Amino acid sequence: MSADQPILSVEGLSKSYGGVHAVRGVSFSLSTREILALIGPNGAGKSTCFNMLNGQTVPDAGRVHVLGKDTTGLKPRQVWRLGVGRTFQITATFPTMTVRENVQVALSSHDHKLFDLATAMPRYAREEADRLLDLVGMGGFSMRPCGELAYGDLKRLELAIALANRPKLLLMDEPTAGMAPRERIELMRLTAQIAKEKSIGVLFTEHDMDVVFEHADRILVLNRGSLIAEGSPEEVRRNAEVRAIYLGEGLVYDARHREGAAP
Amino acid sequence: MAFYIVQFLTGLASAASLFLVASGLSIIFGVTRIVNFAHGAFYMLGAYVAFTLTERLSGAIGFWGGILAAALIVAAIGIVVEMLLLRRIYHAPELFQLLATFGLTLMVEDLVVLTWGPDDLVGPRAPGLKGAIDFFGQRIPSYDLFLIVLGPAVLGLLWLVFQRTRWGVLVRAATQDRDMVAALGVNQKWLFTSVFALGVFLAALAGALQIPRDAVHHAMDLRVIVDVFVVVVIGGLGSIAGAFVASVLVSELNAFGILIFPKISIILVFLVMAVVLIVRPWGLLGKAEAPARRTPGLSVNPWRALTSNERIAAAIALLLAAALPFFAGNYALTVGAEIAIFVIFAASLHFLMSAGGLASFGHAAYFGLGAYGVAFAAKLAGLPMAVALLAGPLFGLLGAAVFGFFAVQLSGVYFAMLTLAFAQIVWSIAFQWVALTGGDNGILGVWPESWVASPSHFYWLSLAIAALAVGALRIITFSPFGFALRANRDSPLRSEAIGIDGKRIQWSAFVIAGTVAGIGGALFAYLKGSVFPDVLGIPLSVDALVMVLLGGVETVSGAIVGAIVYKALSIWLVSQTDWSKLVLGAFIVVIVVAFPKGIVGTFEAIWPRRISAAKPTAITSHIETAE
Q1: Do B7 and B95 belong together in one domain?
Q2: B14 and B161: one domain?
Q3: Which residues 6+ apart lie within 8 Å of B82 measured at CB?
Q4: How does pLDDT run across B528-551, given as a tens digit for each residue?
């Protein structure tokens, strides 16, 4: 892989449900260590777009390449094997296992040990699982039943699970939805830090503009299934069409941003 | 040609009653989400009550009045059942609902024999429809023609009720979203009760209308319920039109299957069902099922391996069990061997249910295949016992590999119904293929060789194999495979997203469970010295379910305790009372309603053996995972 080859490249992705064009001809690419935000109002097609990237939804047209490999039409588990981790808008974890076991399952899958019938799981890759949990700030929670975690901790656990296969690309669908404001910033700061350290590209969707403008290197704006803007946070913020769609939120952000930038 | 037309018409006539029962089941499922196992029992009650009304009291209301009155009386019984039992379990997991309604079925079977006696009863012919119509030299009973017209008429009536009445609109709304209907101020309790009454009425009417065609007997409930499960799997659960199409299809396949494979006509239905499941997993006219419900109130405590103290305790228990031959007589040892065998059987199902979340209602198929495998190997091939015993797990494995492949394509109630139907198909083959299996007479003389012929030796053999099997299943449960299986049960979405092929994992687990069940069946054949179709029967499948439930589904090895308690209890019960089904049925109902966690689960709830950790923080809100 050459250094400038994008981790993810998407060309002409489209999907319709009945007569509704949920996603129309979306193209973009993502390079190593880049944090790319996909934003847009409700119903813009963010989730549909996202689900087509890891194989959850099969696109009507267009291609998806991960690390130069065509993944269009592959199943989510096959896309994962190529080094794509994903978190969900509503967390999906294993509530009847401990926090550490959640990560151990992902590790054993990464090691192609799913059909191993004899190894005792409690001892399987224990240190590695704890290291991942430490990384996301869940170090002290290894033995806790996952079913009784607070929502913010579940989001972090998902991140640890997603990191278990040493991904090159992280797909995070509304990573901070349902979290308290302080937790949001913290989680994205953590994600950004991990991405830079481990050379991971991150694509995330997000409603919270504070989070988006704070952490994204580049922003894609989706409206009614089509990309209407793309660029650095500065460029997107100045874009008139985006402001029209995001009038309320954009103004709020500007005000806060000036306050925060002043001192 | 005329012969084939008559055969076709006979099939259509059979389809009518099948459709009535299946549509009732579908309507009840649509609104209450309960798969009513007792539907066959209501069908049977309809026939018995109609027999009494038309035979003994026909003067007052006549034949047709009797038929209608019978259906109404049984519907009233259904209302009582709904109010007393079902209202308590609407929010329980599907498995519990199926089991509770099965318990009800057992009770009805004994009550019917208590009331009407064990003999077949032949009802009167329908007045005005006693004759037959001549059709190019073939004769068609006029009553069959009446039934052929009745099926579409009922379909039309149901359509009118659901499309044109306010009640029908409410039922359709509740089928889509019952919580929303409740939120809109509809009295949900009475809606459910009335829907259940209508469903039961249809089943009882079908039973009552059968009496001019068939003798009334006390096993007609299980026979019809299996056919109905096949119909709703093919047609799509919840779809009335699907029930109609599938009833016709299944009845015609039966009518013509007899001509093609006279011995094993059921194969044809099985093949069609398999094709439908591959092409349209939710039936011809069904919709994709909603995600299975989580088990509310049941523990989500992570499992853990035994501590060293618990290991010692288990070893001591095993040693004590091994010492039994020094204290007990031959009868007790035979009972002990049987219990050990059922521990193997129950543990194999428990593995599938707890780790896999797959509640098989036909697990006896693999136990029975193991038993028949041994009988074939020992009697037909004349192999020595040590080799013949291996045929048990081999047959269990093969059967589970074939049926499991189809079964794991579905989940929840569909999985339960499909496994039940598969087991019944294997049973039918064993029953009908007399040349190979001896049919109802079974295969006799499968005795153990001299080295294990004595009760104590056979007991030790069974105990040793049971300990090995349970140990192996525990190791698998705590292996990466076991965790992948649980991962898929907990969240299919997440496990797919981390590279787990859920269907393949489930299929493998099904094959493991079938193989272990086959080991149990192999020992069982040698214990009894014979093999009968009963070892494949629904009652045996349900025995295993009750053992698992009794021990506790959400435990690692609760089935061991469940098997010991249940088997000992039922052996004792059979020796004490003639009405064991009645007691057993009541027992199942009470367990489901009062002790859904089972013995071991209840014990754990009192003395939590949760992994020690920091005390949970105040925030324990658990957000349901999306699936």
Answers
A1: yes
A2: yes
A3: B192, B193, B196, B197
A4: 999 999 999 888 998 899 898 888
Looking at the structure, tell me whether residues B352 and B271 fall in a common domain: no
Instruction: Give the start-to-end residue ranges of the domains of chain A.
Output: 1-83+167-263, 94-165
Q: What is the pLDDT of residues A113-143, one digit of tens each?
A: 999 999 998 889 999 999 999 999 898 899 9
Q: ipTM value of the model? A: 0.89
Residue to mutate among A88, A94, A159, with most B CBs inside 10 A, is: A94
Q: How far apart are CA B445 and CA B449, in angstroms?
A: 11
**Alpha-carbon distance A222 to A52, whole Å?**
15
For testing contact with chain B, the best of A53, A75, A108 (most B CBs within 10 A):
A108
- Decide: residue B595, CB within 10 A, 0-12 exposed, 13-18 middle, 19+ buried: middle
Q: What is the mean pLDDT of residues B120-124?
A: 87
Our count of domains for chain B comes to 2
Q: Chain A residue with minimal CA distance to B472?
A: A118
**Subunit contact B302:A91, Cβ cutoff 8 A:** no
Comparing CB atoms, the residue among B475, B487, B499 nearest residue A94 is B487
Residue B107 forms part of a structural domain: yes
Residues of B in contact with A77 (CB under 8 A): 496-501
CA neighbor of B521 nearest in space, from B532, B506, B507: B532
Q: Do A161 and B494 touch (CB under 8 A)?
A: yes
Domain match, B357 and B240 both: no
Ranking B38-52, B514-528, B601-615 by mean pLDDT, the lowest is B601-615
Does B498 sit within 8 Å of A109, measured CB to CB?
yes
- Look up the domain containing B163 and give its range: 2-279
Contact state of A115 with B610 under an 8 Å Cβ cutoff: no
Asked if residue B313 is part of any domain, the answer here is: no
Which pLDDT score is estimated for A4?
63
Chain A's closest residue to B492, CA to CA, is A92
- Give the whole-angstrom CA distance, residue B15 versus residue B152: 10
Q: Are residues B341 and B270 in the same domain?
A: no
Same domain, B337 and B247: no
Whether B188 is in a domain gets the answer: yes
Burial B319-351 (b: 16+ CB within 10 A, else e): eebeebbeebeeeebbbbbbbbbbbbbbbbbbb
Please indicate if any CB of chain B lies within 8 Å of the CB of A81: yes
Do B257 and B357 lie in one domain? The reply is no
CB contact under 8 A, A95 and B617: no
pLDDT at residue B134, as a whole number: 80
Same-domain check for residues B396 and B275 = no
Average pLDDT, chain B: 87
Q: Which residues of A touch B351 (CB under 8 A)?
A: none
User: How far is it, in rounded angstroms, from Cα B564 to Cα B580?
Assistant: 18
Q: Select the residue of A97, A140, A143 nearest B486 (Cβ to Cβ).
A: A97
Mean pLDDT of A217-237: 90
Q: Please name which of B514, B515, B489, B512 lies closest in space to residue B500, comparing C-alpha atoms.
A: B489
| Cβ contacts of A128 on chain B, cutoff 8 Å | none
**What's the pLDDT at B296?**
36
List the single residue in A76, A120, A161 with the smallest CB-CB distance to B496.
A76
Question: Tens of pLDDT along B440-475?
Answer: 899 998 989 889 889 999 999 999 999 999 999 999
Q: Which of B305, B617, B625 sits opposite A90 (nearest CB)?
A: B625
For B238-284, write each residue's pLDDT tens digit: 889 999 999 999 999 988 888 877 766 677 787 788 788 778 878 88
Query: What's B453's domain CATH number?
Result: 1.10.3470
SS3 string, B17-78, reads: HHHHHHHHHHHHHHHHCCCCCCHHHHHHHHHHHHHHHHHCCHHHHHHHHHHHHHHHHHHHHH
A55 to chain B: closest CA residue: B497
Residue of A nearest to B473 (CA): A117
Q: What is the pLDDT of residues A52-103, one digit of tens each?
A: 998 989 999 999 999 889 999 899 999 999 999 999 888 889 988 999 999 9
Chain A to chain B Cβ contacts (< 8 Å): 151
What class, spelled out in words, does domain A1-83+167-263 have in CATH?
A: alpha beta
Would you call A104 and B483 a contact, using CB atoms and an 8 Å cutoff? yes
pLDDT at B46 exceeding the cut of 70? yes
